[in-house]
Design goal:
It is a lipid-anchor; GPI-anchor; Single-pass type II membrane protein. Residues 1-18 form the signal peptide. Zn(2+) binds at residues 340, 344, 363. By secondary structure, the protein is of the alpha+beta class. Among the domains are: 4-9 and 11-24 and 348-496, Orthogonal Bundle (Neutral Protease, domain 2); 501-606, Immunoglobulin-like (Sandwich), CATH 2.60.40. Helix content is 26%, strand content 29%. Strands 1, 2, 4, 5, 8, 11, 13 and 14 form an eight-stranded mixed sheet that branches. Helix 3 crosses helix 4 and helix 4 packs across helix 5. The radius of gyration is 26 Å and the shape is globular. The two termini are 30 Å apart. Mean pLDDT is 94; it is low at 5-32.
Length: 610
């Protein structure tokens, strides 16, 4: 999901988030059906599949829904807890059937726990572990104006107001459209059915399977059953919008005037080439049989863009482009956002986070591919050349504040989860991922991603799964690139330490390079009493003609607060750390080295190398 626009506005207005509290670092779900104040679904039941029927009403701006959830009971329980928010459900509208038992459980009562968005189904008797249950729920909801959940939007065509319904579920709003297990790790399959007026059409994550004529001017669109996926990635749009001709299983959907005017063609072509670039880099084919992009009028889409699997949604201004009307900066922005959302089709959709703690596994990789894939599709945009400025520096501006947080950070409430979609999840994580690519080499990095995607595909992942995949890639090559270290030793310091270091470089009386590190703050009075130490990949550039500026592997690993290296440095020799700005740290030098380095830094900057 793209939220950079919001972050820019926050920065511009001078608003600083309050310091993130130090909360317990845990992703264990609460087994107790009582929940004891937790916002997490108890893990006494898990979902297997959903069959969802929805009918929006564009006169009353409401919708009728029916969902059949097939679940497995994994702990004996007499209460089934689901998520539901702003839905109307009566006890008489709930039925529970036992698939492998002649006697079905009796629904004794139902209960909304509104503060936690829980809908609890209380059974007359306990159901044992191993039972497969089908929960049928009929309900109603509102097509809201909040741009989240299942909501209404509009455009004007020939002076006629056209209303339509669309979705935005990330991170905790699928529960506004249907009762569900609204947590990213609780994947299931989804069959979506939409009842619509004859003049409308509908699209969802999966290809359309069949259209049933209901005989009264209404039609039912039935979509193919999905692969295993998270609730926040489910999407559907019911509208009278137009669609480009499908090319290589991709199309762009939007207001008819814009589509007929050719403004979806750039996005469609870019999307096709971006899929090819992603498949080539990861070695993993795109999973679904189609990938549509939908342009939503800007006022009705708060997120910017959303990576719904197979049905990516965008603000119109972030997707539609036409030569002679759109600017070159708009072209770059649109191409980059498409690459970001398409990167999510692998990182976030195919492999989803175990919990929102690891949202950086989604957004960090999407930020990386926002630049890499755009570079592959349109090299003239030189997106990777802009990485340090647009990503590293942008991240550091915020990460140097006392109010920052570590990358893997636990949150439970919907509001706290929303706060995790910040520069740490996007730009810092993207910077750290790029740093890892450079010290591992691109070939090893790509192999690690291939292992990660194949091992965790259609499942959920946490940081350790990524480290394990990278370590396996290193081991396969019998690489000594990390010396005595392993990938966990290195990456967990960047994952779990708050902020980032400034590396100070000096020369001692013996002519050796001395390196020291401390956490960098914009506020010079600030102190981190934890005295964090990072495992820092050090590369350097000097006058040695054999020192290749394009070789960004680590020459040295700084693992302590201060260390005297074995690098010799003459009295008059310049010495510059962090070639190509690949390291996520700032560099300071002794006065002596600043004097020697300044001319070289100016030359490198002039030549576009630094």
């Amino acid at each position: 999901m793209i939220l950079k626009l919001v972050l820019v506005l926050v920065t511009t207005l001078g608003v600083t988030l309050s310091k993130f509290p130090d909360v317990p670092y845990s992703d264990v779900r609460n087994i107790s059906p009582i929940n004891d104040g937790s916002y997490r679904i108890p893990n006494d039941t898990i979902p297997i599949s959903y069959d969802i029927l929805l009918e929006p009403n564009f006169e009353t701006f409401t919708f009728d829904g029916e969902v059949i959830i097939t679940i497995e009971v994994v702990e004996d329980t007499s209460t089934i807890t689901l998520h539901a928010n702003d839905l109307q459900i009566g006890t008489e509208d709930v039925e529970v059937d036992a698939r492998n038992n002649e006697i079905s459980p009796v629904v004794e009562d139902t209960e909304f726990v509104e503060d936690f968005h829980f809908f609890k189904i209380h059974l007359a008797e306990e159901v044992g572990a191993g039972e497969i249950l089908e929960i049928s729920i009929k309900y109603t909801g509102n097509l809201n104006t909040a741009n989240r959940g299942f909501y209404r939007a509009r455009y004007v065509e020939n002076e006629i107001e056209k209303w339509f319904a669309t979705t935005q579920f990330e991170s905790t709003d699928a529960r506004r459209a249907f009762p569900c297990y609204d947590e990213p790790a609780l994947k299931a399959t989804f069959t979506i059915r939409i009842i619509r007026p004859a003049s409308y059409n509908s699209v969802s994550n999966m290809p359309l399977l069949e259209i049933n004529d209901l005989g009264d001017g209404r039609f039912e669109d039935v979509f193919e059953e999905s692969v295993l996926m998270s609730t926040y990635l489910v999407a559907f749009v019911v509208s009278e919008m137009a669609k480009t001709v499908v090319v290589e299983n991709q199309a762009v959907i939007g207001v008819p005037f814009y589509i007929n005017d050719g403004r979806g063609e750039f996005a469609q072509t870019t999307g096709i080439e971006t899929v090819k670039a992603m498949e080539e880099f990861t070695g993993v084919q795109y999973t679904l049989d189609k990938l549509d992009q939908v342009a939503i009028p800007d006022n009705y889409f708060s997120a910017g863009a959303m990576e719904n699997w197979g049905l990516v949604t965008y603000r119109e201004s972030y997707l539609l482009y036409k030569d002679g009307i759109s600017t070159s900066s708009e072209k770059q922005r649109i191409a980059a956002i498409i690459s970001h959302e398409y990167g999510h089709q692998w990182f976030g959709n195919l492999v989803s986070p175990l919990w929102w703690t690891y949202i950086w596994l989604n957004e960090g990789f999407a930020t990386y591919f926002e630049h890499y894939a755009t570079d592959e599709v349109d090299p003239e945009l030189r997106m990777m050349d802009q990485y340090v400025l647009l990503v590293n520096q942008y991240a550091m501006d915020n990460d140097a504040l006392v109010s920052t947080r570590r990358m893997s950070y636990y949150a439970e409430t919907p509001s706290d989860i929303s706060r995790l979609f910040d520069r740490i999840a996007y730009e810092k994580s993207g910077s750290v991922i790029r740093m890892m690519e450079h010290f591992l080499t691109t070939a090893t990095f790509r192999r690690g991603l291939n292992i990660y995607l194949n091992a965790r595909g259609l499942k959920a992942a946490q940081a350790s799964d990524l480290w394990e995949a990278m370590q396996q890639a290193i081991s396969e090559e019998s690489s000594t690139i990390l010396g005595d270290l392993n990938i966990v030793d290195i990456m967990e310091t960047w994952n779990m330490n708050t902020g980032f270091p400034v590396i100070t470089v000096s020369r001692n009386e013996d002519g050796k390079v001395v390196l020291s590190q401390t956490r960098f703050f914009l506020d010079r009075e600030a102190v981190d009493e934890d005295n964090p130490v990072w495992t820092v990949p050090i590369n350097y550039y000097n006058a040695d003609p054999e020192n290749d500026f394009t070789d960004t592997r680590a020459n040295y690993w700084l693992t302590a607060a201060e260390d005297t290296t074995d690098i010799d440095l003459a009295d008059d020799e310049w010495f510059i750390l962090n070639k190509q700005g690949i390291g996520y740290y700032r560099t300071d030098y002794s006065d002596e080295l600043w004097s020697l380095n300044i001319d070289t830094l100016i030359l490198l900057t002039t030549n576009g190398l630094y």
